[in-house]
Amino acid sequence: MKVSHLASLLGALCAISPVLSQDSPTLTPDALEDLVNRDALLEHARQFLAFSELSNGTRAFGSKGHQATIQYVAKLLEATGYYDIEFEEFTYSYSEAKAQFFADGKEYLTRGLGYSPSGDVTGSVVVVNDLGCNPTDFPAAVKGKIALILRGTCNLGLKVAHAGGAGAIGAILYNNLDAEPISGTFGAPSRPEGPYVPSAYISGVNGKAFIASIAAGNEVIANIRVQSLIEDRVTANVIATTKEGDKDNVIVAGAHSDSVPAGPGLNDDGSGSMGILEVALNLANFHGLQNAVRFIWWSAEEFGLIGSEYHVEHLSDDARQKVALYLNFDMIASPNAGYFVFDGDGNATDIPGPPGSEVIERLYRAYFDSHNITAGSAVFGGSSDYQPFVDVGIPSGGLMTGASGIKTAEGALQWGGDAGVAYDVCYHLSCDVIENLNVDVWERNSKAIAHSIANYALSIEGIPRPVREPVRSLRVSKLSYEERLHLSCDHDDELI
User: Fold this and answer.
1) Are residues 308 and 384 in the same domain?
2) Cα(264)–Cα(65) distance, rounded to whole angstroms?
């Protein structure tokens, strides 16, 4: 475990008096922002990367790497004496599949699919009729062979269950776009329509090439190899609330602490987690907070916003009422970054946040304007941990820098970087390491976080505080497993 700096960090913080003296400086936005710097952010990044090495390169929820991450966050904050710390535990089903796919002796890029059974199968490829959403789409010839199925209309698990029910020994799902798929899941451990079979998930280009070859009279022989893990895992959100400030007006800032199983997640969302951690550690130097500040590191975001939904759904109506606003930071250091602010008033995206969200948007835009940065707009599309707060009417906002979407020529002129290239070419991949972080953008966004936290800790003028209606269930809780997982994987649907 390469965490040699952890002891020195904790030792330095433990030397801080747990109670601020009267000589401690009074909080101002400029003073807090000035303390945030790249050296400290990069020190956290080295620790997060080391934690991922405890779990074969991942910090997926419930893994040793993720457990080390949340313990690190909690210990650093506890050492300041400035916060009340809580671990909010819950249990959720974890699934992970690693796959390899070969056709006619050539290996192709594939994605493992959650709940795909383990196996090593070889056979001729048979093209399925239509979309594979009905048993009648599967010809008799698929028995004992490998079904080739187009993504779309119904969920992936249903298609594969129908393949198993028709006697197929394996399934190849190909994207309904030419691009490689990012990730996928069958959505449930089993289905009554038939047994799951080992499955691969490939690009639309490759899928259509196999169809063309088969139509030309060629036999395509495929080999699918899958290693799968399915288990319930206990995990936790880390919650740190300032001891100072009005607890009837709580400013909540959040970022998810877990990565995808495929990599260490230094940008997604190590960048947001480390950004709010550094702001929280530096906030501990000040007194004079008028409103309480609560930092939360969400778990299991990558499995469908599980931690944030659990938290909001388990708040009492009174506790929800005390949350004045929510700020979300998910991917703030993309290597080919754009600067995006959530569109609180809905002017750019036609999807406003709850009343008061427009006030948050104006604060961030004014901040970036003061640094001669033009900010784009991000839509409240449901793809990160703000969604449960939006569902219950809490004013929300935040920052992001883009995922697998392609930067436009206009974006390259505004922010630099490369047009025609993804904002983060390592999104959800093993290469999301320290070298993947745009440190200049990360530092600026972390300073913007400090600016907003300090402003709202001092005043929530302009943020409405009506009595909110009780909410008995959240939109996210009504979605299927697959629909929930899709929420956490679609950051690029949010950018305008």
Assistant:
1) yes
2) 9
